[in-house]
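FAQ: What does a ligand-bound record look like?

Like this one, built around flavin-adenine dinucleotide:
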Amino acid sequence: MSTFSIPDQRTAEQYKEGLRDNRKVYIMGNKVEDVTEDPYIKVGVETAAFDFILGHDPEHRDLAVTNVPECEGDISSYFKMPDSPVAVNDRFNLVKTASMYTDGALPFVKDVGSDILNGLTAVARVMGNKTYEKRINDYRWYCASKDLSLAGAVTDVKGDRSKGPADQESPDYYLRIVDETDDEIVVSGAKAHITAGPYTDEVIVIPTRNLTENEKEYAVAFAIPINTDGITQICRPNFRYEDKNHFPTPRPKRCHLESLLIFDNVRVPKHRVFLQGDWQFAQFVAYAFAAFHRFTAVTYKIPIIEYMTGMGMLVAEANGIQNASHVKEAFVNMIKYTETTKALASAAIASPEDFGGSGLFVANRLNSNMAKLHFASNFHEFVRNIQDLAGGLLVTQPTYQDWKHEDLNGYLKKYMGGAGNYNAEERLKLMSMLHHMVASDFAGWHEVCTIHAEGSFAAQKMMLLAEAPIEAYKAQATSVLGLNV
Ligand SMILES: Cc1cc2nc3c(=O)[nH]c(=O)nc-3n(C[C@H](O)[C@H](O)[C@H](O)COP(=O)(O)OP(=O)(O)OC[C@H]3O[C@@H](n4cnc5c(N)ncnc54)[C@H](O)[C@@H]3O)c2cc1C
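The answer part, i.e. the structure of the complex:
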């Protein structure tokens, strides 16, 4: 067995230094010279940096780093092979802690990538393909030993959703192999909505759907540095790092950015290719990734909905309405939503599964998908409860700049006070954060993210149909009825 040597976990500063590598990133029509300094991308960079802070924090170090025989020294726990049922619980604690650290914006630069690595390893084992398995393992320990960050690129741009890659008007609506030499493949295409792409070291790519035999060139999985020639990223701003209008909070607000990740004749060395032409396994790869990643999704959402529930309750107190019966009803709705999501996540942890007999363990797939579907299906109603309790000030509130203005501060103190201990400042602070969470551009992003990120409703429903004990339900029914069908 080869052993990778590792100096130590990188610091946040070393991570940021690594991003100054001439990557080709655009935002709002401008080429970004240094992603760590761009006022919008910096929000994501600083969010991601927490993955590198966690490993140096004495309180969380035991969770964040671990040892494996394949590497000398400590590696990020994200890269550990989930080769026992306990790994599922460890992963839950790691992701939840990382999410809490960033007020719910999971650092997101090692978890998606490692979920893909786990999915690919499991598939290579099920295929019995030792070449792929070795390449994936080598890549896993390479990333672990260098303490690298990874974007996960799954979603193609897809053109006409009712057609597969071969039937599209353009062959480029799905990423594909366009050329091959003895040592390399050459790929072209574009992957959409790639979280953290502008500020990761590497990108790992897998197919997004099932393929047919005449779509072999689309059956490709690989990983490369994200500053490789031919890669261009176009990203959309979320919100600025310097936020002058909201009241300051103890920690700066966190979030990620996504990019359209374009591959224009990008050369990939073969030792970095993990699937090539095996069209029969394309859907299985996407499915295996989803099996690992959907649990990550549910886990990192839990801290967000816990503190949003708390904020809904606080704003009711600030408005002096907490004892009204319709307000208690809203509290019950929020509690029901949050605690059901948590209970489904707990059920997923309680019955881990050996994925396809690969020896890699995932949280129970039926329960993970139930949790994600419940979370996503009911989030808008949850937000509606908070919007109702807060009142119109959510969108009309004076900004922090008004609060600081000497001519206006007196008026705001005079008119913006609330009930109980909520003087004008405390009430406006709360309203300001609530504006960010449920009434801003970011809130719109968050609502859409809840539905689509980590797979939209249909993806979870397909998993439910695949994983639910449907035959057992039917057997019970036929037994109750005495049917012989
Ligand atoms: C904030 C955010 C972050 C994300 N991060 C990542 C990431 O890091 N990496 C990554 O790879 N992806 C990422 N995604 C992509 C995410 O997985 C997709 O958005 C999701 O799978 C839906 O795909 P889509 O956006 O193309 O929408 P579509 O697939 O077009 O969905 C729109 C609607 O069409 C329906 N539909 C789609 N195809 C069919 C069909 N054949 N027949 C019938 N109905 C259909 C869907 O069910 C849905 O109702 C992210 C998305 C968001 C919003």
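Follow-up question: can I read anything off the structure? Yes, for example: The chain is about 45% helix and 15% strand.
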